[in-house]
What does this fold into?
Amino acid sequence: MSKITKQKKIGLVPGFKSAGIVSGIKASGAKDLTLIVSDVPAIAAGVFTKNRVLAPSVIYNKRRLAKVEKFKAVIVNSGNANACTGPQGMEDCKTICDSLAKELAINANQTLIASTGIIGVPLPTPKITSAIPKLANSLSDKGWNQAAQGIMTTDLVSKMAEVRYKEGKKEIVLAGIAKGSGMIHPNMATMLGFAFTNANIDKKVLKKALQLATDASFNSITVDGECSTNDCVLVLANGLAGNSKINGNGASYKNFVAALTDLCQTLAQKIVRDGEGATKFVTIAVTGSRSLKEARKAGMRIATSNLVKTALFGEDPNWGRIVCAVGDSGVSLNPEKISVAIEGQMLAQAGVPVQFPKKKVDRLMKKKEIQIDVDLGVGAESAKVWTCDFSYDYVKINAEYTT
Amino acid sequence: MSKITKQKKIGLVPGFKSAGIVSGIKASGAKDLTLIVSDVPAIAAGVFTKNRVLAPSVIYNKRRLAKVEKFKAVIVNSGNANACTGPQGMEDCKTICDSLAKELAINANQTLIASTGIIGVPLPTPKITSAIPKLANSLSDKGWNQAAQGIMTTDLVSKMAEVRYKEGKKEIVLAGIAKGSGMIHPNMATMLGFAFTNANIDKKVLKKALQLATDASFNSITVDGECSTNDCVLVLANGLAGNSKINGNGASYKNFVAALTDLCQTLAQKIVRDGEGATKFVTIAVTGSRSLKEARKAGMRIATSNLVKTALFGEDPNWGRIVCAVGDSGVSLNPEKISVAIEGQMLAQAGVPVQFPKKKVDRLMKKKEIQIDVDLGVGAESAKVWTCDFSYDYVKINAEYTT
It folds into this structure.
C-alpha cells in the first residue's frame, strides 16, 4: 500500500460537492444546514446508535440503506435532533427528503438524513424546506469547511479530515466531517460522522469496512459515557477513482480499511479533543488482553470512569482507580498480573505498587496529552481508546442549560 | 407482621457490643478502627463487590463464610483499603484477625474483616494490632455511634439505622452501620454495610434474605457509577430473640426480609444523601417493566447518567436525557410507550412531549428531594433506585486529592 497522505483540511473529493448554510434553526444565527451531493449515484453504508430510542432520521436511514442500492445526497441539520417528537418526527424526515429530491431532481429514495441538537422539540421543518434551494445553490467542490460548520452543536471547532493513497495507479481519496463534543447540551448532542470517497468498492465490503473503522474510532472514544438517540456514521463511495472494484479480503480491501480507519480515528480524536470542558487528551492503550473485544471493553471502562477522569483533571497519578475500573469492566483478568504505566512511567507492576519518582510523575501528569498503558498480562491482544479528563466545565456546561 | 419501628440511632441490640477508636491510620487523627462482637456465636452472610479486582479482606471473608458456621467478631479499619497491595495484603488480614482472636480469646476463624480508604499503600498493620487491646476494652452495648464513626472515609456524617418488629411475642431487633459517599477519595472509598440482629434464622435463609435486601438497597443506589475493590455487606444473626427459627418461605421469612430491606434501604439512602458534592436526593421509580431486573437496570442507567445528574444539579427538567438513558440501558422498551414525570408533573407521555407549565416545573426542580417516574409501558414490574445530582463539588473533591 502506498503511504497514506493526511490533511487537516479537505481538498477536492472527485465527484462530491458540499455546502453549509444558515436556515434559521439556531437562535444564534450560526450555520445549521449541511448538504453533500455525489455527482453520480454512490453506494452507502451506515453504523448507528445502539440506543433503543431511535431518532426518526436513524430509522429512516436504516430503512433506506436496507432497500436502496445507490444514493446521491446527505442532508444534515443541527440545532434540533428531531428525537422524541412522536409520529410527526418521521413525517418531517420525509418532507425534507422529498423537498431536497425535488430541488436536486433526484429520487427521494436516494437521500439520507441526520439531525442533531435539542430533543423533544418538533423540528422547524418549514425553515429547512425554505432554505433548500439556497442550500443546493451553494453546493461547491470547495464547500467542506461550510459543511463541517453546518453540523456543529456545542463543538468549539469544526472537524474535518482527509486521507489519500494510491491503489495501483489510481488515487483513492477519503474525506470526512464529524461533530461531537460528547453527548451533550443543548439537551443532548450527538456524534455524527460522514465519510465520502471516490473508491470503487462492493457494497457489502464497504459496510464491513465501515464497521471495522467505526469500532476502532468512533466506538473507541468517550467524552461522558453517553450514547445518543441520533448517533450515526455514514459513508458514500461513488467509484469515480476507477480502481478495480475492492472486493473480498485481499490487499486492496486491507488498504481501504486502513485508510478509512485512519480517517475515522482522526475525526474521532478531534471529537475527544473538543470534549466539553476537556483540558487533557488521553490515550488508553490496553495490552495483554485475551481478545480485541475485551481490550476495548477494558479501555472503554477506564475511559468512562468518573474517578479516573477527575483524577486526570486533578493531575493525580491515581493508578488504583485505573485498576479498579479494569476490575469493574468484566473482562478476563488476574489482579496479580495487571501493570499500569502513565507516560511510560510504571506505577504498578504485576499488581504490586511501584515506588515511583514523585517529582517526575508530577511533571508528567501536567502534560496536555497523556498516555495510560495497561497490561492485563493474560493474552496477546491489544486496543487503544481515547478520552478526555473531567473538569468543572463539564458540569457547568451541562448544568447551566435550561430547557 | 407487626409494624416496623424505625430509629435513626441504635439502641440496645441484644447480645452485640461495639466500639470505634483511633488507631492512628488517618493523618487527621479521626476514628479509624471499629469492632462489633456478638456475645454468643452468630451465623453470618455476606454480599461482595462484583469488581474482579478484590481486596484481600473480601477474599478472606468469602473463604471464611464458605467454611465456618458461626462468627463472633467483625473488625473494620478506615483510612487504608488494603487493596492492590500484593501478597502482603492477605498476610495483613490474617495478622489482624489472629491478633483480635487472641485478645478476645476466640478462634481466628470466627472473625470477619473489612477495610476502606486509600489503595495501593500497604496497611499499617502494627498500628492496628497495637490498638486492638484498647479496642476490645472499649466494647460497649452503647458503642454504635463510635462504631459508625470508625468506618467513615469522606463521609460527612456517620450512618446508622435500627428497626424493630414483633415476631409472635418476641422482639426482633436489626441494627446497621454503613459508610459510602460513592467510591471516592482518598483514592477510592468503598461502600460498606454491616447489619446485626438477634433473630433466630437459618443460615441459608439469612443469605437469601441479605441478597434480596442488598439488591433493593445498596445495589439500587449510585453516587458515581463506580464499584470498588472492597465493597462488602455483612450480616450477623445471633438468635438471642428466641423466636422459632426463621426458615423456608413463610410469613416469618417475609417479615424478616421486609425488616432487613427496610434497614438496608435506610442506610443506602443515607449514603446517597451524603454523596460527594450532592445537592439533591433523587428517587427514580421505574414502572411498566417486563421484569424487576429490567426495572432496576433502567433505573440504574438513569441514575448513573452524567447528563441526567448534571441536569438535576442545573434544575433543568430535561426528560429527553432520561429517555435517552433508558434507551441506552438495553431493557425491553417501546419508545412510543415511555412516559416521564418529575415530581408528579408529566413531561412526556407515550413518547410524545407534554406542554407543561414552565413556572410550576421550575419551582418543582428547585426541591432538594426529587422523584422521577418513568413508565416503560411494556409490563407490570417496577423498582425504585436512588441517586444524587452531580455538582462542581464532585469534580473538586475527586480532582483535588493528590496521592
